[in-house]
Amino acid sequence: QVQLVESGGGLVQPGGSLRLSCAASGSIFSIGAMGWYRQVSGKQRELVASITSGGIGNYADSVKGRFTISRNNAKNTVSLQMNSLKPEDTAVYYCNAVTVRAGVRSDYWGQGTQVTVSS
Predict the structure, then answer these.
(1) Pairwise CA distance, residues 30 & 41, whole Å
(2) Residue 61 burial (CB < 10 Å; 0-12/13-18/19+)?
(3) Neighbours of 69 (CB within 10 A)
(4) CB-based contacts of 64, cutoff 8 Å, min separation 6
(5) How many other C-beta atoms lie within 10 A of the C-beta of residue 86?
(6) Tens digit of each residue's pLDDT (9 = 90 or more) over 9-25
(7) How far is CA 31 from CA 1, 24, 41, 118, in A?
């Protein structure tokens, strides 16, 4: 089992910045990729950014050039630096960790943190 705890959400004006952090605990040795997803009420949860255990990042087209994902394997944390925020970035953001054991993938989720971009 993996437990994820997020922090760093809040209210920010358009053009502003926020940094989300996520700390993993539990069976951390089994974690592969980690990432951030977001969800707006009534819509599907969507991938924002992910990062492999080796540090290779992948981004949704909508956030490329504005968001940066990073990972500290020694501290078991993953962060999302969000710059040039837009109102359409408003959502609940969820931290995600993936484990694969005997070919079976398991996804773990944090509790979610609200990000609101509004003037």
Answers:
(1) 31
(2) exposed
(3) 22
(4) none
(5) 13
(6) 999 999 999 999 999 99
(7) 10, 9, 29, 35
Distance CA(40)–CA(92), nearest Å, equals 7
Cβ atoms within 10 Å, residue 99? 18
Q: E strands, 8-112, where?
A: 10-12, 18-26, 31-39, 46-51, 57-59, 67-72, 77-82, 91-101, 104-109
8-state DSSP, 84: S
Nearest to 77 by CA among 10, 28, 18: 28
State the DSSP code for 100.
E
Backbone torsions φ then ψ of 16, nearest 5 degrees? -85, -175
User: Which pLDDT does position 28 carry in this prediction?
Assistant: 81
At 49-88, the pLDDT tens digits run 999 999 999 999 999 999 999 999 999 999 999 999 999 9
Asked whether 21 and 7 are in contact (CB, 8 A), the reply is yes
